[in-house]
Amino acid sequence: MTETASKEIPDKPSIVVCGDSFNIPPDKDLTVGPGLVFRNNAITCTKPGVIKSNDKSVWIDRNNKRYVPVLEERVIGIIIGGVLDEYRVDIGGAHVAMMSSIAFEGATQRNKPELKPGNVVFARVIAANKDVEPELACVNKKGKANGLQVLEGGHVVQCSLGLCRKLRQHKSPLTQPLFNHFKSFELCVGLNGRVWVRSDTTKHTVAISIYLKRCEYLCVADAVMTLKQTVRALG
Fold this sequence. Notes:
Layout: E1 14-16, E2 21-23, E3 31-32, E4 36-39, E5 42-45, E6 49-53, E7 57-61, E8 74-83, E9 86-90, E10 97-104, E11 120-127, E12 135-138, E13 149-151, E14 155-158, H1 161-167, H2 176-181, E15 185-190, E16 194-199, H3 202-214, H4 220-234
Parallel strand pairs: 3-7, 10-12
Antiparallel strand pairs: 1-6, 2-5, 4-5, 6-7, 8-9, 8-11, 9-10, 11-12, 11-13, 14-16, 15-16
């Protein structure tokens, strides 16, 4: 007889340990994220941390030093080479990811982006298995870009995985101060511990990058104070 989980997924972030199991609500189609596996009609924790969930997914929030690819996650990758019709992409994981040269909206064998080592892409993980190299694509399931693209210019900031998840939250309190201080800037957050920043001036890009790094170990109020000081210092 198969043993089933007796606990429901907590409504609020809760500390869990390896082996903890939770029922999946029958009315929800949740994506199982990092630190969890689907087993015996329930999700089981494979890593300790804080379990979090929203309407679409459930995951374990913990500051891993190395990114573990998860299906459908958005990541920022750096092209490091090409093999035939595929690009080799560094996403900060244990293995280099692969991406087809036509994995872009409207791309064909005759009309496709020509990427070089050092180019930065915002892509979707379309295959994630511990036994094979992860695969990426710059299109969603419907073949549309929907924000996935080659990122031109700007600067890539290395952040912790936990901070990147906080930055990707809807109306994140960490990003609001940036809207208060800068009229024009772009921010692209990958769940693999990378943030791409571009603004109207190099000084503002530097200020935003420093602010993001300070958010790792300062509260929002202190990080904002540092942001103001940096902006004044850079003129």
